[in-house]
């Protein structure tokens, strides 16, 4: 894209925004012929004022039109814009199984292709590339919905439903990270229903944590606690007969329940749930990633630190952080580690160590930039760190603040 002429870049973004040349021209106050000539390179765009007008109509960073690195500007991560939110919402509002009674269902991709697409999406999520995943979600949702409808009465019906359940979970998780909480809740709720239809209680269990996380982000901590604990009790393992995947999902539910308990200040319930999760992790015998839970002894410790931060006990969180086994922690996925660094930035800020808090934000940014640059809470933490920093912040922190568009 950076090497294309500006007219080609205009054409690319206009098509991505699903605007015809006529609609685009009308919004600019230009003729369709003028737009066509610009996109073909016949007419030059030599006025910055016009380029800025085009960027405004297309709702994107003007640097993208100029072929420059957008990461050098505030809002640089281009995490997600309202056009993309609208496309995701539109995909979530589809009811292909109902429509199939009245119209021919859209042609679905092959199951093998959907399987690869879902795997790639999970890897994108686990590496914290939220903007990339958000932009892929509309098509991924439509394809998974079409496959679920088309294969509903075939031997592939359960796998198609399973894949759609996964995609809904991915949508819920990334939308929550990016602050689109109502859509996150909707996607998670859809995932529970589809997972049950797929006949996979563990997938439904993980979907429950997505619902609970959306509820927690919306401030409904008590409801989030009850949802997690209720489903964890149903999946409670039988001693000596538990598979690793069931133990992982069970433990993951307990961890999310502990986080919800910490948010309402229920330290007793939080400790009980963390202890039960620790026992489950011990039974697992190591750090695993069954059903994308990243569950194991290290993740339990990471959640202990996060829960302490929620209770305002930054000193305890720091002690847990300092006691983490470096090899085990570094083996965790980038998203999980960057999330922990964000939690620890809050923990260090709580004890007044804003220098270490800034270092945690920078560590997270190196691992998974979107976890720091795209999350509203990270912007709040960075603003707090800058406000409380005596003198001039480090060059690295000042640069990160400039790129994120964060001020005191």
UniProtKB/TrEMBL annotation:
<feature type="domain" description="HTH cro/C1-type">
    <location>
        <begin position="10"/>
        <end position="65"/>
    </location>
</feature>
<dbReference type="Pfam" id="PF13560">
    <property type="entry name" value="HTH_31"/>
</dbReference>
<dbReference type="InterPro" id="IPR010982">
    <property type="entry name" value="Lambda_DNA-bd_dom_sf"/>
</dbReference>
<protein>
    <submittedName>
        <fullName>Helix-turn-helix domain-containing protein</fullName>
    </submittedName>
</protein>
<dbReference type="InterPro" id="IPR001387">
    <property type="entry name" value="Cro/C1-type_HTH"/>
</dbReference>
């Amino acid at each position: 894209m950076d090497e294309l002429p500006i007219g080609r870049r205009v054409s690319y973004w206009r098509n991505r925004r699903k605007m015809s040349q006529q609609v685009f021209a009308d919004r600019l106050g230009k003729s369709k012929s003028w737009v066509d000539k610009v996109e073909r390179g016949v007419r030059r765009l030599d006025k910055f004022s016009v380029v800025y007008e085009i960027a405004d109509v297309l709702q994107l960073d003007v640097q993208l039109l100029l072929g420059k690195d957008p990461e050098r500007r505030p809002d640089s991560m281009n995490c997600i814009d309202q056009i993309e939110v609208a496309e995701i919402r539109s995909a979530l509002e589809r009811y292909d199984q109902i429509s199939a009674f009245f119209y021919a269902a859209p042609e679905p991709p092959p199951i093998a292709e959907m399987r690869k697409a879902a795997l790639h999406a999970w890897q994108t999520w686990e590496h914290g590339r939220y903007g990339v995943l958000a932009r892929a979600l509309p098509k991924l949702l439509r394809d998974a919905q079409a496959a679920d409808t088309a294969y509903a009465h075939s031997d592939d019906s359960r796998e198609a439903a399973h894949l759609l359940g996964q995609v809904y979970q991915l949508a819920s998780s990334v939308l929550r990270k990016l602050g689109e909480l109502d859509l996150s809740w909707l996607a998670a709720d859809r995932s529970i229903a589809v997972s049950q239809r797929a006949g996979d209680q563990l997938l439904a269990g993980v979907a429950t944590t997505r619902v609970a996380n959306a509820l927690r982000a919306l401030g409904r901590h008590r409801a989030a606690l009850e949802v997690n604990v209720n489903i964890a009790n149903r999946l409670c393992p039988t001693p000596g007969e538990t598979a690793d995947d069931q133990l992982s999902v069970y433990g993951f539910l307990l961890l999310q329940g502990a986080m919800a308990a910490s948010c309402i200040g229920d330290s007793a319930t939080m400790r009980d749930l963390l202890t039960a999760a620790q026992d489950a992790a011990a039974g697992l015998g190591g750090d695993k990633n069954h059903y994308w839970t990243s569950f194991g002894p290290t993740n339990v410790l990471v959640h202990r630190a996060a829960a302490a931060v929620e209770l305002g006990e930054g000193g305890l969180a720091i002690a847990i952080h300092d006691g983490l086994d470096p090899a085990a922690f570094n083996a965790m996925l980038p998203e999980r580690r960057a999330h922990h660094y964000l939690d620890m930035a809050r923990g260090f800020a709580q004890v007044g160590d804003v220098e270490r808090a800034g270092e945690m934000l920078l560590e997270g940014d190196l691992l998974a930039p979107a976890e720091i640059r795209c999350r509203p809470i990270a912007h709040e933490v960075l603003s707090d760190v800058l406000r409380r920093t005596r003198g001039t912040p480090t060059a690295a922190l000042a640069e990160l603040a400039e790129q994120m568009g964060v001020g005191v």
